[in-house]
Amino acid sequence: MNIETKVKEILCELSGEETVENTDHLQGDLALDSLMMVTMLVEIEEAFDIELDEADMNPFDLGTVQNVIDMVAKYCGDENE
Fold first, then answer.
1. CATH value at residue 34
2. What percent of the chain lies above the pLDDT cut of 90?
């Protein structure tokens, strides 16, 4: 499963949406609150077996689905598992 697919799967689960688009805003379009944003970061660390730097742990720096995908890609490279 590639990075984009897995990130979208996590976000669908958290938001309750059936599908998410790369341009969707995490708070506006997907209605993620602060607890859900932190949960998202924890789930991403577990799903991709990565440890996010403290600088990347501010969930409010992540505005869109694409921002999350880009952040994960930074840690995983552009691997498509």
1. 1.10.1200.10
2. 81
Q: Which domain holds residue 29?
A: 3-76
CB 80 within 8 A of CB 15: no
Q: CA 5 to CA 22: how far, in whole Å?
A: 11
Q: What is the pTM of this model?
A: 0.90
Structure tokens at 78: 């552009």
pLDDT of residue 60: 73
19, part of any domain: yes
For helices 3-15 and 65-76, angle between their N-to-C axes, nearest 10 degrees: 140
Name which of 21, 27, 34, 36 is nearest 66 in CA terms.
21
Q: What is the pLDDT of residues 2-12, one digit of tens each?
A: 999 999 999 99
Mean pLDDT of 19-23: 97
